[in-house]
Design brief:
Structural class: alpha/beta
Radius of gyration: 20 Å
Number of strands: 8
Number of helices: 13
Distance between the termini: 31 Å
Strand content: 15-25%
Helix content: 40-55%
Number of domains: 2
CATH topology of the largest domain: Rossmann fold
Length: 330
């Protein structure tokens, strides 16, 4: 047994971050240009790695899960995000637009089918894309699953949700800018206030909103360090602005239909890793996705929102390596 475990851990160590092969901008229409990067082996198995948010940006660190000799790693900044232009543009920026951008990028890079990977909001986008273009998906590798259901949103933001029970004193700080009536539905109140606010007031609201989310990323947040980071001049509140815009529009998704449509992915190899201490994206909904997709594999790790633990990282690498074996066998 010990030899088996040692073999698993030795085999599934994270890979050295692959160097960027190519980068550039792809005009996708509506005045938007999407920034993208590729890495690894251009002749390898294509994998597109989707960032979270909405409002995040690509991270080279995500490349560590993929064998650079066997994977052709593709990443891009979604509309209005990261280096994509125009920055923070909300016009013609919806989930459907992002899905179509993925298709345009796939075609631009000459990719037939690709593995679709993503965490958090990236997992939502990955699933929505795969439901629509399943014939272009060879496998799915997801972490920190988010389905955008009303129950998930209530769990994080409402006073009756489990997140408020975990950090009650911090939740009080989250709803402090709201009056008693607004505090009954803090997410809706923040959206309304941010849309009306300007200058320092708007900046405070955006930072206070993201502060609450950051507290839920793991079991033992360093609150002093978090506050120092959130209140620094270097902190970029644009993630909050983009996220609230998407949340105001329910992420431009019919989430009930998305959950129902997950059943159509049963013919695709689907692998999921989710942290048990992720209070932002509740493990319950990773289990729901798993149950909806017949034949999918789900492993819970002792991580928070980000898969950072040694066991969690090795599980991601293990699944990525296993996908190669599965695809080579087809």
């Amino acid at each position: 047994m010990l030899k088996t475990l040692k073999k698993f851990f030795d085999k599934n160590k994270p890979y050295k971050i692959a160097k960027t092969l190519e980068y550039g901008f792809l005009s996708v229409g509506d005045g938007h240009k999407v920034y993208y990067e590729t890495a690894g082996n251009k002749k390898g198995v294509p994998v597109v790695v989707l960032h979270g948010g909405p409002g995040g940006s690509l991270s080279e660190n995500k490349r560590k899960f993929y064998n650079p000799k066997k994977y052709y790693i593709i990443q891009f900044d979604q509309r209005g995000c990261g280096k994509s232009e125009p920055s923070l543009c909300l016009e013609n920026n919806t989930t459907d637009h992002l899905i179509e951008d993925m298709e345009k990028l796939r075609t631009h890079l000459g990719v037939d089918k690709w593995v679709v990977a993503g965490g958090s909001w990236g997992s939502t986008l990955a699933l929505a894309y795969s439901v629509k273009f399943k014939h272009n998906v060879s496998a799915l590798l997801l972490n920190s699953i988010f389905l955008n259901t009303k129950e998930e949103m209530s769990a994080v933001y409402k006073p009756t949700g489990p997140a408020s029970f975990i950090y009650p004193e911090q939740y009080e700080l989250f709803i402090d800018p709201l009056n008693k009536i607004e505090a009954e539905d803090p997410l809706a109140a923040y959206i309304k206030k941010v849309n009306k606010a300007e200058g320092l007031e708007k900046e405070f609201l955006l930072r206070n909103f993201i502060r609450w989310e950051c507290l839920l990323l793991g079991l033992n947040p360093n609150i002093a360090s978090l506050d120092e980071f959130i209140n620094s001049e270097e902190f970029d509140s644009s993630l909050s602005a983009m996220e609230l815009y998407y949340f105001e529009n329910e992420c431009f998704l019919d989430s009930e239909k998305l959950v129902e449509d997950l059943q159509s992915l049963s013919n695709i190899p689907v692998y999921m890793v989710h942290g048990r201490y992720d209070f932002l994206c509740n493990a319950k909904f990773a289990d729901l996705a798993h149950k909806q997709i017949e034949g999918s594999k789900l492993v819970f790790t002792f991580d928070g929102h980000s898969i950072k633990s040694e066991d969690g990282v090795k599980q991601m690498v293990s699944f990525a390596n296993h996908i190669l074996t599965v695809l080579e066998g087809k």
